[in-house]
């Protein structure tokens, strides 16, 4: 029984993951701009650039701030190149609707196993350039299911492993539980998947909120961080799929 939908990830996701690796430039890297970026703080500069990029005003975003700027250190040069990659990525987004979907994030709803009776294996996946979060139910013998996280920093062992992981999510204290790290799958194109058992899908749906951030750490090392939006609409769609209780 596949615990995750056996569908090949679109090649655009892998391209997006590569292209947006520089979007999360840490504040420390951006601080090299402080001396030449007037009174704007490094983080403020970065936030403003990203806001302008998202609004489609790149002509007065990074281009405006970086005009005439000459990097003086290798760190500044690396930061400048990262911003230039951001610009190229945004150009690709404007030209490729599929990449734009990964940048904005979207939900998919389906039954994660075929064949399946009505109300069984109902699944919802939120996909973005950061990875995939999937909540999927089981068959009529069990009200539980799985919460699956798929991302580039998750290990890809040769066989399924059971490990201890700490899940932090919006509105709840961190919880450390046993999870499954699924074996490497060539169809996943370099992405790994962690699975958390969900004792009750109806209870999980009652806990869904519109915007949530999730972070997973294993042995103190963060291996996944991602947010979803429109969680209420996803909850309602899953409830319509589930068999009556």
Summarize, please.
This protein is α+β, with helices and mostly antiparallel strands and 245 residues long.
Explained architecture:
This protein is of the alpha+beta class and 245 residues long. The protein has two domains: 14-98, no CATH class; 105-241. The chain contains eight helices and nine strands. A hairpin with a 7-residue loop joins strand 3 and strand 4. Helix 5 (74-95) packs across helix 6 (97-104). The two termini are 23 Å apart.
Descriptors for this entry?
245 residues; alpha+beta; 2 domains; 8 helices; globular; disordered N terminus
Helix content: 25-40%
DSSP summary, beta strand count:
9
| Mean pLDDT across residues | 76
Helix/strand/pairing category: alpha+beta
Spell out the helices and strands N to C: HHHHHHEEEEEEEHEEH
Number of helices: 8
What is the first-to-last residue Cα distance? 23 Å
Q: Strands, helices and their partners?
A:
Blueprint: H1 11-19, H2 27-30, H3 42-54, H4 62-66, H5 74-95, H6 97-104, E1 106-111, E2 122-128, E3 131-137, E4 145-151, E5 161-169, E6 172-181, E7 192-198, H7 201-206, E8 212-218, E9 221-228, H8 231-241
Antiparallel strand pairs: 1-2, 2-3, 3-4, 4-7, 5-6, 5-8, 6-7, 8-9
């Amino acid at each position: 029984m596949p615990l995750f939908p056996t569908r090949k990830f679109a090649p655009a996701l892998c391209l997006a993951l590569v292209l947006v690796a520089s979007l999360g430039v840490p504040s420390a890297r951006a601080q090299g701009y402080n001396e030449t970026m007037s009174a704007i703080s490094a983080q403020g500069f970065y936030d403003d650039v990203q806001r302008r990029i998202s609004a489609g005003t790149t002509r007065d975003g990074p281009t405006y701030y970086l005009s005439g700027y000459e990097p003086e250190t290798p760190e500044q040069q690396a930061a400048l190149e990262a911003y230039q990659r951001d610009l190229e990525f945004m150009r690709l987004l404007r030209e490729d609707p599929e990449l734009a979907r990964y940048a904005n994030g979207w939900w998919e709803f389906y039954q994660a196993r075929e064949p399946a009776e009505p109300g069984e294996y109902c699944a919802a996946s939120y996909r973005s350039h950061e990875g995939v979060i999937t909540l999927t139910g089981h068959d009529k013998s069990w009200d539980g299911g799985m919460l699956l996280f798929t991302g580039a920093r998750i290990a890809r062992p040769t066989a399924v492993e059971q490990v201890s992981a700490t899940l932090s999510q919006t509105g709840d204290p961190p919880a450390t539980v046993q999870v499954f790290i699924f074996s490497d799958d060539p169809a996943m194109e370099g992405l790994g998947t962690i699975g958390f058992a969900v004792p009750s899908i109806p209870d999980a749906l009652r806990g869904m909120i519109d915007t949530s951030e999730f972070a997973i750490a294993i042995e103190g090392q963060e291996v996944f961080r991602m947010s979803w939006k429109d969680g209420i609409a996803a909850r309602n769609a899953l409830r319509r799929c589930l068999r009556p209780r």
